[in-house]
Each structure stands twice: as structure tokens, then as C-alpha cells.
Amino acid sequence: MLLLALGFRPRETGRRRAKNSRRVALEQPAGVGTSHPTDARTGRAVRRWRRTASPCEAPMIAYTVRCDFTDASVAADWRQWIVDEHLADLLDAGAVRAEVVTLDEPSAGAAVTMESRYWFADRAGMENYLTHHAARLRGEGLERFPLSLGLSYSRTIGEALGPRQRGPRRRQ
After folding, report:
1. What is the pTM of this model?
2. Last residue of some domain: 37, 54, 71?
3. Which terminal residue of the chain, N or C, has fewer Cβ atoms less than 10 Å from its own Cβ?
4. Is 37 in a helix, a strand, or coil?
């Protein structure tokens, strides 16, 4: 049932009622019938799984702030602040997920490079953040960690394609 939770649906004929009472439309693959593939060991029919998008599922917006530090001690203080305070502020401002990543390979000329990543449910949520909250939150960050401490910021915004997850592969 993990596959169903991740949005994968078996290809079958007709419609059926799911446990949570949602109706799920399933497609019949070509050649279904007596020639339906079977598992050689068990003799059971093999289900082919495919990813289906929910009609209400829209792409999320990813907002990434990259920060390069020339001083590792400033980076440690910044990381403590962002984890303890700033991530929660972004979640309160409309982000649905937030995290900080310390990159294995810092940018050229930097001792440490970190990225804070925020996901918004849609572009309207991102625009709301930029319009009503971004200036205030950026100002708080620059007040606490001015650029004179050896920081530099860059920001990117994009549409997230996913999520995709892979579980452990079965050996045949």
C-alpha cells in the first residue's frame, strides 16, 4: 500500500472504491485478458504500476537561499539562528516545508556554503510571501548577520518537479 500512498495506481479495468472512500479511476493496459503477464514463480497476475497525478495536485514552488561564508564561526552562528528561528518564521509566512543544507563543497572563495530551502504549495503562496513577508524577514537576517561579516546571498525560485521516491529494489 506504500505505492498507493505515493500516488502510484495499479492498471486495472473499471472503477473501484478505495478504503478511504475516494473513487479511483484505473486504466486497463493493452493486452489485458488471458494474455495478462504472470509471475513465473507464483503464477499470479503481475500488476504494472504507473505514476498518476491527482487532479488537485499542483506543482510546488521551491525557493532556495544560498549563503556563502568566509568565516566558519559566523556560519555556525547563522545556522543556529536559522534553525532555531528563521525556518519557523518562513513556515508561519506560508511555506509548507523548510530545511537547511550545508553543502559538501563550498563555493569558490567560501569557507562554508549553506542553502535554506523552502517549499510553497503554489505560486500564489510564494507571491504572498514575497509581497508581505520577505522584506521584513530579510531585514531581520541582515540586521543580525550583516554582509560585513563575510556573507553573500543568492536566491532562486522554481517549480518543483516531483516528488519522486524510490524504495529498495527487489532482486530477481
Report:
1. 0.62
2. 54
3. C
4. coil
